[in-house]
Write a structure and sequence with these properties.
The chain is an alpha/beta fold and 323 residues long. Helices cover 43% and strands 19% of the residues. The chain has a 5-stranded mixed sheet, with helices on both faces. A 3-stranded antiparallel sheet has the order 9-6-10. α5 packs parallel to α8, α6 packs parallel to α7 and α7 crosses α11. The longest helix is centred in the C-terminal third of the chain and has 20 residues.
Amino acid sequence: MIGRKIVMALLISASWLLGAKLDKIVIAGPSATVSHPVFRMIENGALNDYAKKVEFRLWNNPDQLRAMIINKEVDFVAVPTNVGAILYNKKQPIRLLNVSIWGILHILVRDPKIKTLHDLKGKTLVVPWRGDMPDIVLQTVMEKENLSQKDIRLLYVSNPMDAAQQLIMRRQDNALLPEPATSMVLRKTKSFPVSVIAPELYRGIDLQKEWGRAFGIEPKIAQAGMAVVGKMRQNDEVIEAFMKAYDEAAKWYKTHPEEAAKLVVKYTKMFNEEAIADSIAHVQLDVVPAKKAKEDVEFFFKQLQKRDPKMIGGKLPDEGFYR
């Protein structure tokens, strides 16, 4: 088996020396910010030297992602770090390349006096995606702060759009949302800062700051990044090119919000350009190679493991998870 892998690696390397290109590189991801630099990579042809075609495929839930990997449909994926760990621990062919999303979660409130989770005592908080990243982070911080659902009533909805509607229709006063849904709600309710007379909603709580305060660390969480899957794991040349291109695209994304917003709308069609452009200033987007981010990733995983080992696939992933 080891000998076969060496032969395959040599064949791949030889093909690059001969100038051969792959027929296609497929990159999959959710509509969330972690995928947005990929759109820039595709538009500016960052991987054109390595493949005849580069394609983006949207996944809407971890089951779809798992099916893509099992069916060998994709080469690179944008993924929540804990989902990557679950897949790795279930023997799926995946390795984490980087962590890029360190802060994307905010709680919108109607009462400007609400600044911390403790200020939500006795109130209802709308939460999307029960059991997924926003809920996981929230409940981990609540537990650390000795808060329970007796203190804060959690009202679960299926996705951020449903949570947004609860705020927009004034059915609820507080909701946990990821960017760019947060910025979209502020735009729709005319609560965004640029034309404020009397805002209807406020960015009351930065959940990353609550995490940092609760654990006595920096206000950042290793939430999501890019991973390589399948046979592409052996193709070092393409991996290195991909990582460099993603890093450059992320830097461009942060410094060109209006142009980036146009690209995101073109590929996802879920948000308007104004909301995307607004959101970029409120996302902690910093591309860190997986091995350098390992300490932060493992700290996050250990907190999840204490609550429920299933959240990371039963155990901390070994060194092979980090490329």
